[in-house]
């Protein structure tokens, strides 16, 4: 579909949604400003550069859901309207889209629309709005159910504070009708919101194709079929992925990117190596290097294919697109130096070796998290291949690798700043230096038979000999 017809399709779909909403509002005798308000969000999101049709429709669906709940509560029940879980929708937005701005927008619009529908005043709108903001903040980065329960408690407490501030008359607060209509509903509202979130999160996640922290935690379980298979069939790749994930998580944390996404993305970035694990240096134990017996062009194909096969495996196992993105983007359009060099050496006079044939197909990293995994992947391979892993050598190598990736344009399409890159680099150096630190030398013990006891100055993270041997391909694979 060309861009012009795609735009016409988007405008047509949005128009249909707005017309349907206008008809609903007209029939239910609600203000026709509601659909106009929704349209203005779409335009606002466009200006925030967050707009796409999918996000607009997902956001609109959540907003409409709370409108329908408010409509049903006021039209068909006698339940006090303060039971309506507006904060639940804001919490769902925060968990699904991991975006505080969107969650604020949902809090604002949800509060206005619900108070319009229930016929509430400015105080009602403000109570719902502040409660929703509190909920959004409280569930930010939530990974455990306990945090959700805490968020519910926080929402209820915020609602009650708003109620007391709006009605500072103690006699009024002690009246039974006030308690039944305002106090008890607002105290229960936070818990109703949490129940709504827990009950519907998985459904919306499936509908929107979103990836929440809860799903990321499920994916990080080593009993997941792909990870379990990797441990058995490609143990070297599994170990490499673990180190890359530790580096990526710490670096993402340092620049306030999504650390959990970076960690889980790193677990799955090389799953394609499971198809031919023996062709990748980290899995070659004592069997020698398979690439010594094949042409550089064949080696190139095997290495390039780990990306293609990884994507196929991930799709077959129904991984979320946000995780699949790590597979092609962790190499970007980098050059496979070792085999390119080998092909140049093997080329006969006048034979042309095209550099682009030895580059990964890309795309380059599009997000900060995938860019971090690209850097961690290269740095891990290069440092593992060093003869001497002293802090100075590690620092030199890390800086050299990151500079090369930067100069090669691999970081052009993600929004990492130079300050971010500097923080990532120092995090890598700190972690790798700690991993490869040498043990202190124990003093020699003089034995009776004149034999000195063994020296125990081996490296703490002694690598299998094959790991040293495989330095040739290092970072490029
Ligand atoms: Fe890879
Ligand atoms: Fe890798």
Automatic annotation (TrEMBL):
GO terms for molecular function: hydrolase activity. Residues 233-391 form the HD/PDEase domain. This is Membrane protein containing HD superfamily hydrolase domain, YQFF ortholog. Residues 441-477 are annotated as: Disordered. It comes from hydrothermal vent metagenome. Keywords: Hydrolase, Membrane, Transmembrane, Transmembrane helix. The chain crosses the membrane at residues 7-24, 30-48, 55-73, 79-97, 104-130, 150-170, 182-204. InterPro entries: HD/PDEase_dom (IPR003607), HD_domain (IPR006674), HDIG_dom (IPR006675), Metal-dep_PHydrolase_7TM_intra (IPR011621), PgpH_phosphodiesterase (IPR052722).
């Amino acid at each position: 579909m060309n861009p012009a017809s795609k735009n016409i399709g988007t405008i047509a779909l949005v128009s249909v949604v707005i017309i349907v909403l206008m008809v609903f509002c007209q029939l239910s005798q609600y203000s026709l400003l509601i659909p106009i308000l929704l349209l203005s969000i779409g335009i606002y999101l466009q200006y925030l550069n967050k707009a796409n049709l999918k996000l607009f429709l997902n956001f609109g669906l959540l907003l409409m859901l709370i409108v329908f709940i408010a409509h049903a509560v006021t039209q068909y029940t006698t339940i006090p309207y303060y039971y309506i879980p507006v904060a639940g929708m804001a919490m769902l937005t925060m968990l699904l889209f991991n975006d505080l701005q969107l969650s604020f927008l949902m809090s604002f619009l949800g509060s206005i629309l619900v108070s319009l529908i229930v016929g509430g005043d400015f105080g009602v709108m403000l109570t719902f709005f502040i409660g929703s903001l509190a909920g959004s903040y409280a569930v930010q980065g939530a990974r455990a159910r306990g945090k959700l329960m805490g968020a519910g408690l926080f929402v209820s407490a915020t609602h009650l504070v708003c109620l007391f501030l709006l009605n500072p008359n103690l006699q009024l607060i002690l009246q039974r009708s006030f308690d039944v209509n305002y106090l008890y509903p607002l105290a229960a509202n936070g818990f109703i919101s949490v129940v709504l979130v827990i009950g519907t999160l998985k459904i919306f996640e499936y509908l929107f194709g979103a990836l929440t922290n809860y799903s990321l935690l499920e994916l990080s379980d080593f009993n997941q079929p792909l990870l379990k298979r990797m441990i058995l069939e490609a143990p070297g790749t599994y170990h490499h992925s673990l180190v890359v994930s530790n580096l990526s998580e710490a670096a993402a944390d340092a620049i306030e990117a999504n650390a959990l996404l970076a960690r889980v993305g790193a677990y799955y970035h090389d799953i394609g190596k499971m198809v031919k694990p023996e062709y990748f240096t980290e899995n070659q134990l004592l069997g020698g290097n398979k690439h010594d017996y094949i042409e550089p062009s064949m080696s190139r194909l095997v290495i390039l294919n780990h990306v293609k096969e990884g994507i196929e495996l991930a799709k077959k196992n129904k991984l979320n697109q946000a995780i699949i993105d790590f597979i092609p983007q962790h190499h970007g359009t980098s050059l496979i130096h070792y085999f390119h060099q080998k092909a140049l050496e093997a080329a006969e006079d006048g034979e042309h070796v095209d550099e682009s044939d030895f580059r990964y197909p890309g795309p380059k990293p599009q997000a900060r998290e995938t860019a971090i995994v690209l850097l961690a992947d290269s740095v891990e391979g290069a440092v593992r291949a060093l003869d001497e892993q002293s802090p100075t050598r590690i620092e030199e190598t890390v800086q050299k690798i990151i500079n090369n990736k930067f100069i090669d344009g691999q970081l052009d399409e993600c929004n990492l700043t130079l300050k971010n890159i500097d923080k990532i680099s120092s995090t890598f150096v700190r972690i790798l230096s700690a991993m490869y630190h040498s043990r202190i030398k124990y003093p020699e013990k003089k034995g009776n038979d004149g034999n000195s006891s063994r020296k125990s100055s081996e490296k703490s993270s002694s690598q299998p000999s094959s790991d040293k041997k495989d330095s040739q391909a290092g970072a490029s694979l």
